[in-house]
Amino acid sequence: MDKEQQAVGSILPETGLLRLSQILGDKKKGIPPIIPISKSSWWAGVKTGRYPKPVKLSDRCTCWRVDEIRSLITRPSQ
Known about the structure:
Layout: H1 3-11, E1 17-19, H2 20-24, H3 39-48, E2 55-58, E3 61-65, H4 66-74
Antiparallel strand pairs: 1-3, 2-3
């Protein structure tokens, strides 16, 4: 694991869920991206299976499991 992955891994909580703004970042709120891509690229990747499937908490609340985001970060590039 390189230094960047270690830094990102230390930012993530051990367990729980992440909102999309926590994964992709939010400039208005000052949240740095863990995975620096656009929302449309993220959703296209979810659709094709490249990125993890979301957990739907309600009509307006979609999250991803921290452990799945960690494994996404640590796996080799495709």
